[in-house]
Design brief:
The protein has two helices and eight strands; from the N terminus they run ααββββββββ. It is an alpha+beta fold.
Length: 165
């Protein structure tokens, strides 16, 4: 009799609560939401990377121009060579040289990246030997621009200081 009760209980329990398969997977809406979130993150990351890259190009060009003036001033101050040292700045390049005047083709040329330009078309700054004072009548400012309008300036003061801003 006990066995019959167990059989009846098993039969009744299987009839009253059928076993349903568990749900697995994601719905289409859930997948679209996840894809949208990843797209937003990717777009933000790409924009941030591009802005950082442009800033780095401007910073590099700025450092190159500033370094050219520092190098010419230091070479003049230490008396390297027998003549003055100078920097010639054009819209898309800078040239460090030794001599009383800039002569096309002489000196060390540093081209600026194509996305960078200066506000100078034809500027030459000479530094006297030993005292390293620039031969300028007033403070001279060079602005370095990128294609997005960001800019940095370098000022060569009459007293020989090179002020980077």
């Amino acid at each position: 009799m006990y066995k019959n009760k167990i059989k009846n209980t098993l039969r009744l329990s299987s009839i009253s609560s059928p076993i349903q398969p568990a749900k697995t997977g994601f719905t289409l809406v859930e997948i679209l939401i996840v894809i949208s979130i990843f797209t937003i993150f990717a777009a933000t990351g790409i924009a941030t990377y591009q802005n950082a890259k442009k800033r780095a190009v401007l910073d590099d060009a700025y450092a190159s121009v500033s370094q050219a003036f520092e190098q010419a001033s230091n070479r003049a101050a230490t008396g390297i060579g027998t003549e003055k040292h100078g920097v010639h700045v054009e819209k898309e390049r800078i040239v460090t040289f030794e001599g009383d005047t800039y002569i096309e083709g002489n000196g060390n040329e540093t081209p600026l990246p194509t996305s960078i330009s200066t506000d100078q078309i034809d500027l030459t700054v000479l530094f006297d030997r030993i005292n390293a004072l620039p031969e300028i009548s007033a403070d001279t400012t060079i602005t370095i621009n990128d294609e997005d309008g960001s800019a940095k300036t370098i000022t060569i003061a009459k007293d020989g200081r090179i002020i980077s801003q």
